[in-house]
Amino acid sequence: LSSQIDVMHIQECGVYACRDYLGLEQVNSADSAFRKRVHRRVHLRNDASIGPSISAPIDDECRFKMSKWCYQVVDHCGFDRECVSIAMSYLDRFLATDAGEEAFLSRKTFQLVVMTSLYTAIKMMSKESMSPSFVTAVSGGSFTERDITNTEVIILSALEWRVQPPTALSFIRHFLYLVPQDDASLTVINFIFEIARLQVELAATNYSLITTKPSTIAVASILNTMDIMDEECLPGDLRHVLISILEKHGAVNIWGEEMWDLKNKLMTDIANNSSHQVQGIAARMISTTMKSKRANENLGMSPKSVDDEFHSVFENYVSSISGALQTEGGFTEYS
Question: Which runs of consecutive H residues, i.e. helices, occur in 186-278?
Fold first, then answer.
């Protein structure tokens, strides 16, 4: 398992790394062609904001909407939700290439690329797959079967057939597999896995996290889950085992400010999300206490202020769950 995790770390930092193709942050890539491509895209987006006469290229909101659509499709069809994370990896890496330029400029082409990425991810990851005709149907007839199959070839060629990215969820699995069997009941491990999974699924919809390594997101999601589990739910010896595993295999400083910021971002995403389907989780979380030893010990916050802050987030989270929206059906067209 340790060697597998090491390979996954190499992959996520190498051929499967995602880059900021929208240029929302300062681009420091050594790839001069990529820098020029991003700078050109930034100018195009700025020009489009001047007036309606210029067609607007895609933005992070387009990606967010289509990633939500992907979750709706896999939920409706009963496919593994991890397929969406894999599809987003295809999408993000494709859009960072020259071949993705048309998808950046045309929102309709972008939709086609997202749908094809999901179609390909499901085909690669599931025993059953979607047919091109089904994708055509759920697009409302916007695209033909040939559109799907031709776009798939373009995407796979641009990605050089690298179609098995290490996902945040796969890192969570591997980290939890390292917990000795005697140290935790299956119920506790399943609880940690489910709450961590919820966080990484939401992270897959957030463009601002595409350059964050999947392993780092996995570590943050597990730490957040541990924070909401009191001593009765997560005994001290098991907590120590988990911390040791994350310190040894997470390839990140779990006590650093970057990790602290990421943990907060993941929890904020949960608290602010009202449409994610998380039935059954709220009831189990209500019985836990949301705390953060990291904030208490290293940020100079009093125990009361820590509890107040995280209980506020927790209350928003439970409220968002209880008021979750019904899954929207159909294909959403946006201009």
Answer: 186-203, 214-227, 236-249, 257-272
